[in-house]
Amino acid sequence: MATPDKVAAVKELADNFRGANAVVITEYRGLSVKQLAELRGKLRGTATYSVAKNTLTLLAAKDAEVDGLNDLFVGPTAIAFVTGDPVEAAKALRDFAKAHDKLVIKGGVLEGKVLSAEDVSKLANLESREVLLAKAAGAMKASLFGAAYLFQAPLSQAARTVDALRVKQEDAA
Fold first, then answer.
1. How many domains would you assign to the chain?
2. Number of Cβ within a 10 Å radius of residue 164
């Protein structure tokens, strides 16, 4: 029989699944409350980090129509619901896991696609959205500069040729 508390918890978790850009599943066994608070601080602004019962989380994932995570909910599990940039959240989790070996990244979901732990690591190795956009803008600017130079070259060459002819006629006269 479902208690009102459990029903509310499943509803809240399902809403978190629906509202997240990405979800990263971790195992936090052996981390202290202070370390978990530190991790939540590092994720602030990009993700919320929640500890929940596996059975309730599985029900919430099913309710939110998020499939493929059943194997990840074994042992003490915490979920990072990413509402900001998934790359930044993955980097924060990866960096924290390097500093605290007790945090284990199990996998996750990004845009409906199930991610393995290796996929989350690859995501963390990407550059941030702003850096990628700046690189794309720089590449476009460079190609536009090249095109402008290409169009100006015949005009400047023609002007130099006319000037050389003018100088030659002045010398001849």
1. 2
2. 10
Q: Same domain, yes or no, for 23 and 56?
A: yes
The count of C-alpha atoms lying within 13 angstroms of the C-alpha of 86, restricted to the half-sphere facing its C-beta, is 17
Q: Is 36 exposed, middle or buried (0-12, 13-18, 19+ CB in 10 A)?
A: middle
User: 92 and 135 share a domain?
Assistant: no
* Segment 41-95, tens digit of pLDDT: 988 888 999 888 888 888 888 888 888 888 888 888 899 999 888 888 888 899 9
Q: Which of 139, 111, 143 is nearest to 20 (CA)?
A: 111
Same domain, 40 and 96: yes
Single pTM value for the model:
0.69
Distance CA(30)–CA(32), nearest Å, equals: 6
Q: Is 48 exposed, middle or buried (0-12, 13-18, 19+ CB in 10 A)?
A: middle
How many whole angstroms separate alpha carbon 139 and alpha carbon 147? 12
Q: Are strands 47-51 and 77-82 parallel, antiparallel or unpaired?
A: antiparallel
Asked if 111 and 54 sit in the same domain, the reply is yes
Q: Are residues 57 and 139 in the same domain?
A: no
> Per-residue b/e over 84-121, b at no fewer than 16 CB within 10 Å?
bbbbbbbbbbbebbeebeebebbbbbbeeebbebebbe
Q: For residues 141 and 102, state if they share a domain.
A: no
